[in-house]
Amino acid sequence: MQIEVVKSKIHRVKVTGADLNYIGSITIDETLMEAANLIEGEKVSIVNVNNGERFDTYVIKGTKNSGDITLNGPAARKVHKGDIIIIMSYALMDFEEAKNFKPWLVFPNETTNSLT
Question: How many Cβ atoms from other residues are within 10 Å of residue 52's Cβ?
Fold first, then answer.
């Protein structure tokens, strides 16, 4: 049997932009992507702490060490600049493997979106 478990989580980052006219996705600082083991094009779930919105999109790599967290396309309507969000991805794995799996959990500075 396979189950879906949390693979990666970037906990509480500040939205730095919302671009309605860009093709859909979320742009994430490359440093945060690497720390959370996310790749460009990967499906992610977004939870907006400020308004309770939950939605899925995919990752676009942002400039390294920029702190960039920008929601693009229709997802831009679900956030405001300055909102705090949680970004999660999931993986399918065997039930027994999942018992020992440890996800990549990242807790950036909420003010700067940096890891320091």
Answer: 8
82 in a known ligand binding site: no
* Dist. CA 37–CA 39, nearest whole Å: 7
Question: What Cα–Cα distance (Å) separates residue 97 from each residue in 1, 27, 54, 101?
Answer: 10, 31, 28, 6
Is 74 a known ligand-binding residue?
Answer: yes
From 58, 66, 90, 114, active-site residue: 58
User: Other CB atoms closer than 10 Å to residue 103's CB: what's the count?
Assistant: 16
Angle at Cα 64 formed by Cα 59 and Cα 65, nearest 5°?
115
pLDDT tens readout for residues 26-84? 999 999 999 999 999 999 999 999 999 999 999 999 999 999 999 999 999 999 999 99
Has 58 been annotated as catalytic?
yes
63 is in an annotated binding site: no
Distances (CA, A) of 75 to 31, 33, 54: 22, 19, 10
Cα→Cα distances 58→28, 33, 46, 99, Å: 10, 12, 10, 27
